[in-house]
Design goal:
Oligomer: single chain
Shape: globular
Strand content: 5-15%
Helix content: 40-55%
Number of helices: 26
Number of domains: 5
Distance between the termini: 36 Å
């Protein structure tokens, strides 16, 4: 078990802004940062990061937390793996707490992430052994990859055997059910035995943007018309191919630096370009570019250079990819390679300098590429076909979210086609209407597939009570001490609010025996069992003050502690009185509508007793609060 002090150290050493910036484009907003939500599709930024509090809050999805919970959400990993990733980023070695020497992990304790990591190591180690000679020959001799590139991308080899992975995993105590779920092994038709999914294939581990193995691609090394050339591991909650870009974990920093990404089709294209020093190259994992992948690219750059295969299929893919990128406000340009080439073959033959020179000289804007594509297709030869091509180009412009950019591109197209601007504007207007309908339909589908979770509804009293309790942990244990000693006096009606209250009391009692120990509330958030409780706590901490009393200016630590205590005690008092006051209001209404005189007298007597109880309770609580505040 990793000590809480180590977890706190990692959390405090890591800057949440730097880490979240690996996933979204953050823009300064006062003391905080804002971005479009990485969890939902939205037009207006609602994702807030507080560098002061080291917390984030997504107001469109309701999610919130600290740096650990963010990594858990984005990488789909358990807490321990998120801790390792953040520790690595913060240059803190926690291996003495996480490595289990000569100790097998039970299947119940394993995470799918651990299994994927183990599998990647198995394939990589196999490549270096005698059994992997055929894989090394293909990668090194035939494709010209260096040992450094092979190691940097963790390339491997799946032996030409039915159950090499399955046998090794069984020997290592790996969970068979996880292997099946991840598509790494499969049951035979009789179900009596298992066999490996990847056999006699070069293996390309596919990484998340944070560098976590999430899946695998495998290229076959023998000619077999019955088997696909490339094979991917099964889709899962961890591995969604349409949302991943191969090589992004290694390319993201260079993409930001150059303010441009090179987008290619295949694994080998990415590897060849990175080996040649063009480390801003990524691939769409062997599939057509998706809206989600374009959205991910937009987090890092607004410019993408398409460099697909030179054949007609590659050009057709770039045509559809242009529309997808522009709809996400990313500007594409295109380089058409010599016939018969792909980025891998061209850079290996010509070298880095000639490759870069060729790209600079031959680079086309997306409109120039479209004109060339339609011209070579013969679409401009006849008037009716030409009109359809022009309509297609107007549709592309209509996809651009920014109206000024749309107008500028329309003016360019007018000059290139020698058509009147008014005719194109009329055509664009029709395409804009159709595009807006499609965009609204797409966003509606996204909301249905990932429904927005409404913000938890709290009473003002509960909100004040919890906010004071949470913030008080920054100034010591005075509020927690009082809350723990009076816990039995109240139970919050709101489920998540009560869970937060109970969790903090429990944690306070756990650390109570340690002198001067206190809870690091920002670290503590990730340990909440219920994600909804974590989201609520994050929202309360990141939200602005809910009362003018919270706006008192003070730089004195003791004053801040006393302010939290005063607000907590005030809310505590009102929460205890609230059910009594509610009971009184119910009685008052019953008396008002009661027609039976005797029953009305009985209800009035109950109300008198209740009024007395409310006064006594209020007086006792006021005295208690006065004593506490005077002695604190």
């Amino acid at each position: 078990m990793i000590p809480q002090a180590v977890i706190d150290e990692v959390r405090q050493a890591a800057d949440i802004v730097d880490i979240i910036a690996d996933y979204v484009t953050l823009q300064p907003s006062g003391r905080n940062y804002k971005a479009l939500s990485p969890f939902t599709v939205e037009k207006t930024p609602s994702f807030v990061v507080s560098p002061d509090k080291q917390l984030y809050k997504c107001f469109s999805s309701g999610k919130g937390g600290n740096v650990f919970s963010f990594v858990m959400e984005m990488e789909k990993v358990p807490f321990i793996d998120a801790l390792k990733l953040v520790a690595k980023r913060a240059n803190i070695d926690i291996s003495r707490f996480t490595e289990k020497k000569e100790q097998r992990t039970s299947p119940e304790e394993q995470s799918q992430t651990e299994l994927l990591r183990w599998t990647a190591k198995f394939y990589h180690d196999t490549l270096g052994r005698e059994a992997g000679a055929v894989g090394r020959t293909y990668l090194s001799t035939e494709r010209g990859l260096s040992d450094q590139t092979i190691n940097n991308f963790g390339l491997g080899y799946a032996p030409d055997a039915w159950d090499s992975l399955f046998t090794a995993a069984k020997r290592a105590g790996m969970a068979q059910e996880h292997l099946v779920e991840l598509g790494l092994i499969a049951h035979n038709k009789q179900g009596s035995s298992c066999y490996d999914t990847f056999r006699n294939r070069v293996i390309f581990p596919i990484f998340s943007v944070g560098g976590q193995v999430v899946g695998f691609g495998g290229r076959i090394l023998q000619s077999d018309p019955q088997a696909p050339k490339y094979l991917n591991s099964s889709e899962s909650a961890i591995f969604e191919k349409s949302k991943l870009l191969y090589g992004l974990h290694a390319a993201k920093n260079e993409i930001r630096r150059q303010e441009r990404a090179i987008l290619v089709e295949g694994y080998m294209d990415v590897l060849a370009l990175h080996q040649a020093g063009m480390t801003n190259a990524v691939a769409s994992c062997g599939t057509s570019l998706t809206r989600y992948q374009a959205k991910v690219l937009h987090h890092y750059t607004k410019r993408v250079l398409f460099m697909y295969d030179a054949d007609r299929a590659g050009q057709k893919s770039m045509m559809s990819g242009i529309d997808i990128l522009l709809s996400e406000n990313v500007t594409p340009s295109v380089v058409i390679l010599p016939e018969g080439d792909d980025p891998d073959s061209f850079v290996r033959r010509e070298g880095r300098e000639h490759f870069l020179q060729f790209a600079e000289e031959k680079m086309l804007s997306f409109q120039e590429f479209q004109l060339r594509y339609f011209t070579e297709s013969g679409d401009f030869a006849q008037s009716d076909v030409k009109a359809r091509a022009i309509r297609s180009m107007a549709h592309t412009i209509a996809l651009i979210p920014d109206r000024i950019r749309r107008e500028l591109y329309l003016q360019e197209l007018s000059k290139k086609l020698d058509l009147s601007l008014s005719a194109l504007q009329e055509l664009l207007g029709k395409e804009e209407d159709a595009t807006e309908k499609k965009r609204a339909s797409f966003e509606q589908r996204q909301e249905i597939s990932a429904p927005r979770k409404p913000e938890p509804k709290l009473t003002v009293l509960e909100k004040t009570f919890l906010k004071a309790l949470l913030e008080s942990t920054n100034y010591g244990n005075a509020v927690l001490e009082f809350a723990a000693s009076h816990e039995e006096m109240l139970e919050l009606r709101h489920k998540e609010a009560q869970e937060i209250f109970a969790h903090l009391i429990r944690r306070y009692r756990n650390i109570g025996e340690t002198p001067d120990a206190r809870i690091d509330i920002t670290s503590e958030i990730s340990s909440f069992d219920n994600p909804e409780s974590r989201d609520l706590a994050s929202a309360l901490l990141i939200d602005p003050p809910i009362s003018n009393k919270w706006l008192e200016k003070s730089d004195v630590h003791a004053d801040n502690a006393k302010r939290c205590l005063a607000m907590f005690l005030d809310a505590f008092k009102n929460l205890i009185l609230e059910p009594l006051v509610h009971q009184k209001n119910v009685l008052t209404e019953k008396i008002r509508v009661e027609n039976d005189t005797e029953q009305e007298i009985e209800l009035s007597k109950e109300k008198i007793v209740l009024d007395k109880k409310i006064r006594q309770t209020s007086q006792e609580l006021k005295k208690m609060i006065t004593v506490i505040l005077e002695t604190s």
